[in-house]
Amino acid sequence: MALLRVENLTTVHSSGGGWLSGAPKIEVKAVDDVSFSLDEGKTVGITGETGCGKTSLALTILRIIPPASGAIYFTERPIFKMSHGRFRALRGDLQMIFSHPNASFRPGWTVRRLFHEVLRLHQRELGRQESRDRIDYLLKAVGLSSDCLRLYPGELNLFDRQRVCIARILAAQPRLLICDDPTRYLDTVSQARILDILKDIQVHWRITLLYLARDYAAVEHMSDQIHVMNRGRFVESGTPDELFHSARHEYTRQLLALGGAP
Question: Dihedrals φ, ψ of 123, to 5°?
Fold first, then answer.
């Protein structure tokens, strides 16, 4: 049984059309009739250039933006037919790492407070000492010490901030982790270390990954199955080996030649 199933999903972005501007309303299909499934414990990768629709797809799965048509099922439950309360109960199961770690932080909060907020929402049964032990354990899992807890995220470098993001997500005990180009703003060495961390936590926590990135090489390294996305649509799909040796679509061949999307 698929953990996540997306069927004929279309998401539309609108601009213009205000009565003051007099400009006609323009609608663009950010996601255009996309279908795929993701089995528990596996990684599906989606690659394509900036603006191809990857982030819009992720935000639609999380119900942050509404679809124009289609359906999304999580453990065979239709996400968009759920009440707000029922979906809120699933929020711990569905988590996302953003491209820039600052998107995950509240201004003026220390790292300690950020962790305690996640535990308050998703692990209320933990006592004070259990919470401290859990936080220390999660930080060690991503290679950080508890010394960072007293700091503000802005006092950490980008690599450490992204590791804090990953550790905080683990505190929610998710079943599905959507990674939206999580190494985009990091140097080459830090990129490799983040990919290693994600691989490691998938094995030890049995977390299912949806990995979105313009860097084809990173998607290939992480994924069991890859979908190549262009202008909101999947233009080709296959295993990393299949796409590497027998890509049919010209856009896929361009990505392979570049080693990543432009």
Answer: -135, 55
Q: Which alpha helices (H) appear in 142-215, and where do they start and end? A: 158-171, 188-205
Distance, in Å, from the CA atom of 212 to the CA atom of 227, rounded to the nearest integer, reads: 10
Identity at 237, one-letter amino acid code: S
- Parse the chain into domains and list their residue ranges: 2-93+175-258, 102-173
In angstroms, rounded to a whole number, what is the distance separating the alpha carbons of residues 173 and 206?
10
Class level of CATH domain 2-93+175-258 = alpha beta
Q: What is the pLDDT of residues 1-11, one digit of tens each?
A: 799 999 999 99
| Euclidean distance between CA atoms 209 and 206, whole angstroms | 9
22, two tokens: 């007099």
With CA atoms as reference, report the closest residue to 59 among 86, 30, 93, 33.
Answer: 30
Identify the H or E element spanning 157. none
Give the number of other CB atoms < 10 A from CB of residue 32: 19
Count, residues in the chain: 262
Q: What is the pTM of this model?
A: 0.93
User: For 27-41, how does the pLDDT look when each residue is reduced to its tens digit (9 = 90+)?
Assistant: 899 999 999 999 999
At 261, is the pLDDT very low, low, confident or very high (cuts 50, 70, 90)?
very low
